[in-house]
Amino acid sequence: MTPIKSPVNTEERAMSPIEDESGTIKSHAKEGMGGLAKGLAIIEAFGPNTTRMTVSDAANLADLSRPAARRCLLTLVEHGYLAHDGKFFTPLPRMLRLGSAYLSTSSLPQIAQPLLASTRDKLQESVSLAVLDEGYAVFIARAEAVRIVSTGVKLGGRLPAYCSATGRVLLAGLPEEQVRAHLESVPMKRLTDRTVANLDGVLKAIRRAAEDGYAISDEEIEIGMSAMAVPVKNSAGQIEAAVSVSVYSGRVNIETLRETFLPALRETAARLQRSL
């Protein structure tokens, strides 16, 4: 996981602006709370591949000193966000409140949910909505198909943009210079033997997603699982989100994704676009 940098030279207290005799602001000290920023960096370090961490893990992932990481972790324990067994720190349900603040105030997940549920019922597969956040596709709404074993990530989960169908669709909405700069800044690694994890290959996949209007990830995230995503554009024609479906390769092949699932996803995206 890419280390999340904690801001430096951040004031622990708010500073007042400096004004000259006419009342014009001449300079303004940067406002912020360094301790809060460090705590948030640790919270963001938790994910599907980091479900628990030691003090050393937290210090490394959030780019903090061990004493600072320990103070942040213990504060989160004290306030009910983490549990501590003497060595490992793990998230508690209270952590969900942080994500629910966005989900409960943003209209996009609320508008999308019934549309996703309708598409799920039509396809009998889990359907999701995601947005781009710092190189990850973050899932903000999801209609889960009822199966013994579920597929894909959960609500609030995230996948690397470079190798996921959802991420490639979202990156396709950015200028290529920005996409290239992002890809050059993240460590791309092969999650399976089918993962495209080199700059030229990923750029090619993103360009194809832009041209085709959809992307497919065929067992690049996990062997036996494939996904398809289509863009959701706002009134200005910019890609704001992506609708996706994840399936087991043995149950749904790539041809079926294109012939049956793609029209359904495009219809859902179009209905969502009309609601934005």
From TrEMBL:
It holds the Pfam family IclR_C. Residues 94-276 form the IclR-ED domain. One of its GO terms (molecular function) is DNA binding. InterPro entries: GAF-like_dom_sf, HTH_MetabolicPath_Reg, PcaR_PcaU, Tscrpt_reg_IclR_C, Tscrpt_reg_IclR_N, WH-like_DNA-bd_sf, WH_DNA-bd_sf. Keywords: DNA-binding, Transcription, Transcription regulation. GO terms for biological process: 3,4-dihydroxybenzoate metabolic process; negative regulation of DNA-templated transcription; positive regulation of DNA-templated transcription. Residues 33-100 form the HTH iclR-type domain. PANTHER family: HELIX-TURN-HELIX TRANSCRIPTIONAL REGULATOR, ICLR FAMILY, TRANSCRIPTIONAL REGULATOR. This is Helix-turn-helix domain-containing protein. It comes from Paraburkholderia elongata.
